[in-house]
Amino acid sequence: MSEDPRHPEPPAEPPADLGSLRRRLTAFAAARSWQPYHTPKNLAAALSVEASELLEIFQWLTPEESARVMTDEAAAARVRDEVADVLAYLLQFCEVLGIDPAAALSAKIDRNERRFPVPGEHPAEERNPSHRHSPE
Predict the structure, then answer these.
(1) Tens of each residue's pLDDT in the chain, 136 residues
(2) What is the C-alpha to C-alpha distance for residues 108 and 104, in angstroms, rounded to an integer?
(3) Sequence-distant (≥ 6) Cβ neighbours of residue 75 within 8 angstroms
(4) C-alpha atoms less than 13 angstroms from C-alpha of 61 in its C-beta half-sphere
(5) From residue 108, how far is each of 5, 38, 51, 105, 135 by CA, in Å?
(6) DSSP code of residue 121
(7) What is the distance between the alpha carbons of residues 2 and 48, in angstroms, rounded to a whole number?
């Protein structure tokens, strides 16, 4: 917050929705003629690389240190940048393949709710502990 009344801070921008972010990324790439390189294979590879760069930040941290990573401004900035890179490539990947990422996630949550019911709601689930793992 600016304390100098002669130089007020500009108002904060409202959070962007996924659709507007996808359009901005598409325009950004188009302005630079990058579309030929934005194939599903290349975008999936770039997404993997960026996810690995996010993982690298946490690689040797203890669980406790990793939980506090956002308290160090330099580390927090790196985390935010890598999250942005991962999201950017994921949104571009979805754009190229015509996937609505919010709809895909919603459908996946629906499937996981059926696959992994709340313990005790379905007696058959209690007899089959192999269904107690992370969603795939």
Answers:
(1) 445 556 566 556 667 899 999 999 999 999 999 999 999 999 999 999 999 999 999 999 999 999 999 999 999 999 999 999 999 999 999 999 999 999 999 999 999 999 999 998 865 545 555 555 555 6
(2) 6
(3) 57, 69
(4) 14
(5) 49, 25, 20, 5, 9
(6) S
(7) 39
